[in-house]
UniProtKB/TrEMBL annotation:
The keyword Signal applies. One of its GO terms (biological process) is peptide transport. Residues 1-31 form the signal peptide. It holds the Pfam family SBP_bac_5. It comes from the Bacteria. This is ABC transporter periplasmic substrate-binding protein. One of its GO terms (molecular function) is peptide transmembrane transporter activity. PANTHER family: ABC TRANSPORTER PERIPLASMIC BINDING PROTEIN, PERIPLASMIC BINDING COMPONENT OF ABC TRANSPORTER. Residues 109-502 form the Solute-binding protein family domain. One of its GO terms (cellular component) is ATP-binding cassette (ABC) transporter complex. Keywords: Signal. CDD domains: MbnE-like (cd08497).
Length: 621
């Protein structure tokens, strides 16, 4: 069981955060085909394809998928604005100057760009655009289009997290029609990757017949003009959408595209809830299902089509960091200002019972914002961490300088009773005592809050919340569970109108600027940002600044460990659980490459590298 991720870093930048970090090139004054954080790129100049694709994969067929997240309807084709819900799959329409590989943590290879040059002082990066690059309308991709895309995304017309994410890029300069230079406010190893990852779209998107433009933040069903491998073919009532492979796609022969995007069409059907979605798969209405609910995987992803081999279940290992999934606590609510209150809530969450009774022991408790990687803090602070933390000692909880937070356990010799006794004492120390049938503060106000979730996942979260509620009741706390439609919950999250809600922040293999959008003080009051917690901490701001400016792997580890240590000691999230495998059920007509990638999301891996097996009957005709 897991919750789907809501919009974090925007629908396209979330994936960029997974693979891109800093840079290191042997001669940064020279143009190169790729940049890597440490050492050299895995793939040499002149490589023909990535190892995890099949360059001879057949093309054709229509891949039908269901909701890739909790979205049940859409009302726009613009994934870069705050209002509304963007259609699934729009990432197929847009490309960037560079792209990462799925078997490296931080290498960027040319996509729209055919070479990259990083200035020796690290304060700028120049990209030359491949002369063959074309938009879906046939126009050449130019430096002016790249500049336009960058400036539009940084403008108030785009969702506000883009201006934060691109905030350290001072300007884009058109050197010539096919060359653009990005200049940075300060030198960090991440900046060339951020510049190279800017989604690029045509200046003609939204242009009217008279030459005027629909304002960018008002673009709705005007079809985007991008350079990606697919085009929107048709859609219906915000519930279905079909993409068709562009027959004139410019990039098919690029080494970063060989063996990818093999389906002639990709179609999405959006179901109203998880039950309908699962039953539709078993009825054969779509081709592949990524299962996030352990109970479903064990007890419901079964039936005659599984028995006769028409549908296949398999777990695929990944090496992704977990990201942070959990109940996010909104510090904007006075109820949660005291860290002792937040720690008490964490103590009332009985993961071990849930794992035994609901999850079939399939999960591991998340104990870090960077779990399942060497980025997670452990033990006591190292000398490198102390160099970062010690100057901030006056602003930090003294506990930060001790052992790393250990999530409460109810396995013997620990117990739920002992955890609740500790929680009761923490609450008392924070001014909350039990009287008149409820836990109350000095004013007599009862401790009551709401756990918000969307209706699509509410059914799967209900037994989890019910167990949590039962434990909280023993402390005199009332937690009301409310489910609402995905579109409404997104609006409430954008406005920070919630007490506690379940969120999954996407994993990152190399942390960078996205940490500022998630935890930086400037983002806390910026509507639509990723700082759901509402964290405003000068100490965290300082650590994040150090992290972004890390020049070596060791510095990156020290600063990330320090950040993790401070965040976990703040008890801003009640962590959930994770598994290091993707659970995928799929039709037996589908095939995938023999070599698996290392760092990937299952949905993107399926759409970008799988294919349909050739029809033996058709081959004999």
């Amino acid at each position: 069981m897991t919750t789907g991720s809501r919009r974090v870093l925007g629908p396209l930048l979330a994936s960029l955060a997974v693979g891109f970090g800093g840079f290191a090139v042997s001669n940064p004054a020279c143009a190169v085909y790729a940049i890597a954080q440490y050492g050299e790129p895995k793939y040499p100049a002149g490589f023909t394809h990535f190892d995890y694709v099949d360059p001879n994969a057949p093309r054709g067929g229509t891949l039908v998928l269901a909701n890739p997240n909790r979205l049940t309807s859409f009302d726009k084709f613009n994934p870069f604005t705050l209002r509304g819900n963007a259609a699934p799959g729009l990432g197929y329409l847009f490309e960037s100057l560079t792209t990462g590989s799925l078997d490296e943590v931080s290498t960027a290879y040319g996509l729209l760009a055919d070479d990259i040059s990083v200035a020796s002082d690290g304060l700028s990066a120049t990209f030359h655009i491949n002369p063959k690059a074309r938009f879906s309308n046939g126009d050449a991709v130019t430096a002016e289009d790249v500049k336009y895309s960058f400036e539009t995304l940084k403008s108030p017309q785009a969702a506000p997290q883009y201006s934060v994410y691109f905030g350290q890029i001072s300007r884009a300069v058109v050197v010539d029609p096919l060359t653009i230079r990005f200049e940075f406010k300060e030198r960090t190893r991440e900046m060339p990757f951020i510049a190279g990852g800017i989604p690029v779209f045509s200046r003609k998107w939204g242009m009217k017949p008279d030459g005027s433009h629909v304002p960018f933040d008002q673009l709705a069903f005007q079809k985007p003009i991008g350079s990606g491998p697919y085009l929107i073919e048709q859609y219906d009532n915000g519930r279905t959408i079909t993409y068709k492979r562009n027959p004139a796609y410019w990039g098919s022969a690029l080494p970063v595209r060989v063996g990818t995007y093999n389906f002639e069409r990709i179609s999405y059907k959006l179901y109203s809830d998880g039950v309908a979605r699962l039953e539709a798969f078993k009825a054969g209405e779509y081709d592949a299902l990524v299962e996030y609910i352990a109970r479903n995987w064990v007890r419901r992803d079964i039936g005659k089509r599984f028995d006769n081999g028409e549908l296949i279940k398999r777990e695929f290992r990944n090496h992704n960091g977990t990201g942070m999934q959990g109940f996010f606590i909104n510090l904007r609510r006075p109820l949660f200002k005291d860290v002792r209150v937040r720690q008490a809530l964490d103590l009332a969450f009985d993961f071990q019972w849930l794992n035994r009774q609901l999850f079939f022991n399939q999960y591991t408790r998340i104990d870090s914002f960077f779990a399942n990687t060497d980025l997670a803090a452990t033990g006591t602070p190292s000398a490198g961490e102390l160099a970062i933390l010690s100057p901030l000692r006056a602003q930090l909880d003294p506990a930060v300088f001790g052992p790393m937070v250990r999530q409460p356990s109810t396995d013997a010799p620990d117990s739920l009773r002992a955890n609740l006794i500790k929680a009761r004492q923490l609450l008392a120390d924070a001014g909350w005592t039990y009287r008149d049938g409820a836990l109350r503060n000095a004013k007599g106000d009862p401790f009551v809050f709401e756990i918000l979730d969307d209706s699509g996942s509410g059914a799967s979260m209900e037994p989890v919340v019910a167990t949590f509620q039962r434990n909280l009741q023993k402390l005199g706390i009332v937690a009301n569970f409310r489910t609402v439609d995905f579109a409404l919950i997104q609006k409430r999250l954008d406005a920070y109108d919630f007490d506690v809600t379940s969120i999954r922040m996407p994993d990152v293999q190399i942390p960078g600027t996205e940490q500022e959008t998630r935890f930086g003080s400037k983002s806390a009051d910026q509507q639509g940002s990723d700082n759901y917690i509402g964290l405003k901490s000068p100490a965290v701001d300082s650590i994040v600044h150090t992290l972004i400016g890390a020049q070596t792997r060791e510095q990156l580890l020290d600063s990330t460990h320090a950040l993790d240590r401070v965040l976990m000691h703040g008890y801003y999230v009640i962590p959930h659980w994770y598994t290091a495998s993707h659970r995928v059920a799929y039709r037996n007509t589908l095939a995938y490459p023999a070599t698996l990638p290392l760092y990937y999301t299952a949905e993107d891996w399926i759409t970008s590298t799988w294919w349909f097996k050739p029809d033996p009957a058709a081959a004999t005709k």
